[in-house]
Design a protein that fits this description.
Strand order of the largest sheet of chain A: 2-1-4-5
Radius of gyration of chain A: 17 Å
Largest sheet of chain A: 4 strands, mixed
Number of helices of chain A: 3
Helix content of chain A: 25-40%
Number of strands of chain A: 6
Largest interface: A-B, 44 and 38 residues
Structural class of chain A: alpha/beta
Strand content of chain A: 25-35%
Order of helices and strands of chain A: EHEEHEHEE
Oligomer: homotrimer
Chain lengths: ~150, ~150, ~150
Amino acid sequence: MPHLVILYSSNLESRTDVSALCRRLADTMLAQRDEGGRAVFPAGGTRVFAYPAPHFAISDGGAAGRVAGGDGDYGFAYLNLRMGRGRSEAVQQGVGGALMAVAKAHFEPLMTAMHLGVTLQIDVGSEVFDAKYSTLHPLFNKTDNKVD
Amino acid sequence: MPHLVILYSSNLESRTDVSALCRRLADTMLAQRDEGGRAVFPAGGTRVFAYPAPHFAISDGGAAGRVAGGDGDYGFAYLNLRMGRGRSEAVQQGVGGALMAVAKAHFEPLMTAMHLGVTLQIDVGSEVFDAKYSTLHPLFNKTDNKVD
Amino acid sequence: MPHLVILYSSNLESRTDVSALCRRLADTMLAQRDEGGRAVFPAGGTRVFAYPAPHFAISDGGAAGRVAGGDGDYGFAYLNLRMGRGRSEAVQQGVGGALMAVAKAHFEPLMTAMHLGVTLQIDVGSEVFDAKYSTLHPLFNKTDNKVD
């Protein structure tokens, strides 16, 4: 942990660089610091996965958008961060705000070009089992904090 | 919110029109009303994403299906609705029943053609952070209810 | 239930046989037994879906990997099992351990070829609505246990 999964309508695929968005979001997660100045997230466990949905339906399908003068082509991107337990509410809100700022900056040019919804939610995992196997985590173990 | 995510085995892709299913499910969500006659879901936040899984494994992989006279080609579709907190159990059950009726009608022709499982689950989100950025929601803000 | 969803960076797609991994994980789920010797999971509801992420960002993007002598091409696979309520902690841990052993054996050859992270988490569903429609479950109903 953490991981951030982006689900989005595939009509956004040709309109915006989702790989660049993933990178910026990952960098933002890595830059987060808690009240004591420690990294919020372990570098070796930080990942962003983005999936365009080949099939999707959004809202009324375009009717209201056309009435409003658009072409009725709606888009949606849903960003869901799952993080481990044990972080303060201030940290959670800080992370959310920082990630949402990145998402806003990224999607802002599209907002006037189409009717687009972007939602970010953070969940705290309540897993009953958690195991890792990694040659990635050890690259960072010296500097990572303990909370995952 | 709400969003409905469909994960399904990719062997269903050529057998059924998943985009049409997404549209019907979205329309069904938009048609839901609570005890007071208000829309259960905000139109601007209602979306359905469907993802065929390029790799999958189902049940015993076909052995029991072949014994039963089928070709051992199993299919599965998992529908997961995530909605916000604050709705009554009656509303939750009503939404689930309405969506399942759509799924049943959609998949019914396939049920005899192959061994197919369809499951619908509804989760109530317990997110610790929730933010929106949208030119889609404002199209509907006059008529949407407040719960998201 | 149960279902196991694998999200992974698409740079793993050409390096490992994910369909084979899905099959081994499903077989492992089907082989699980509880304290009373009964099958932990119903055969008809057991499925694994795997999704390569066409866009992704992992950790620092490669810098530390290159410093360590690698090519900076990181990979990540996240395995998430969702199971129903009502199973003991011993069963949950046993299932997790068995699945992680499969994942370790599968990814072990890749671990030295690249910097790779594999994480497995198990969640117990807290769904408020659950419905099934299936010609798959009845193939197994005689031998399946009742918990789903």
